[in-house]
Amino acid sequence: MDPSALAFLGAGLGAGLAIIGGGAGIGRLAASAMEGIARQPQSAATIQTAMLIAAALIEGVTFLALVICFLLSLK
Amino acid sequence: MLTETESGQQAAEHAAEQYDPGVSILHHVLDANEIEVPFFPHVKIPLPQIHLPDWLGGYDISITKHVVMMWLACAILLLAFGAASRRRSQPVPTGLRNLLEVIMVYLRDEVARKAIPEGADRFVGYLMTTFFFILTCNLLGLVPGAATATGNISVTAGLALIAFIVIQFSGIREYGVIQHFKNLVPHGLPLWLVPIMFALELLSTFIKPFALCIRLFANMMAGHVVILAFISLIFILNQVWYAVAPLSVAFALFVYVLEILVSFLQAYIFTMLTAQFIGMSVHPAH
């Protein structure tokens, strides 16, 4: 196959897979946070802060994969 | 990138001026040797290009758009903190000083002192500089017409390099060179495990600042690429722009506001992780 066609294919598949991983991870994180807040409403602020920090860290890795895919799609 | 439009005859007529979203997006995100004046397209202010001679390494240390943005961020910070500290003899802070003090006290108490159990105050200056510099650079990038300096991997690499130097020097100053590296491995490990642990921890001392660099760079660049992609959707589907434009602008606005949150969050994450690493270096848990 044409190498640039392979690059586009790789970029698309890579972006999809990266989003699956990131979305699943952050979804689990959000579920645990919701459960924690439901059990103890007075700790909602603490849990929310911790959730945002963890989400930012996971998103960092996801974005790295997305940036690589974007660079691939420009080849 | 995209070479097909809605109607073939349009493509045939405008083949020479085909809109290429990849080129357009990259043009807005990447560094350049000139600054474009907003509202006056095609007016570009060329910036001085400085190439070191070969005997100094031949490096290119031109003043580029992102360098100007970093200097602008420094100027803004100097002005803001200078103005805020003009009445610092008054015990009750007001106005700008109050706002900056809220953030600074939070950084000192919740980030620095929590992460570095003893002697945190000597690192508070560096941590606050990091936080406010990254925050200002991120927010400047959201202003239309300006660029995101932290969306350039060289800038974030420089920040991560300084973080790496601070982390290692703080540990070496506390314990000496040999003990600092011996601190990487926890006590009481079975002997066969020590080489593996040491190799892993040594690798992680380099990977952690690298991750700091990549995280900040990827978050900043990706946010702007998404905004630009939504806007360029209008030009790609320019046959039905009247239908695409409201949706596209609405989504772009949503991502824009999200980017404000991400600017604060990424500055905080960078600072918090650097504080954690300094804490682990100065006070190993084992």
Give an account of the 3D structure.
Chain A is an all-alpha fold and 75 residues long. Chain A has helices spanning 3-39, 44-73. The radius of gyration of chain A is 17 Å and the shape is elongated. The mean pLDDT of chain A is 89. Chain B has 286 residues and is mainly α. Chain B has one domain. In chain B, 67% of the residues lie in helices and 2% in strands. Chain B has nine helices and two strands. Chain B has helices at residues 8-13, 21-29, 65-84, 95-115, 121-141, 153-175, 177-182, 194-236, 241-282; strands at residues 34-36, 44-46. Classes of the chains: A mainly alpha (75), B mainly alpha (286). Chains A and B meet through α2 of A and α8 and α9 of B.
What name is given to the CATH topology of chain A?
A: F1FO ATP Synthase
The whole-angstrom Rg of chain A is: 17 Å
Class by alpha and beta content of chain A: mainly alpha
Q: Report the uncertain regions of chain A.
A: none
CATH architecture term of chain A = Up-down Bundle
Please summarize the sheet with the most strands of chain A: none
Q: Find the count of extended strands of chain B (DSSP E, 2+ residues).
A: 2
Q: How many separate structural domains of chain A?
A: 1
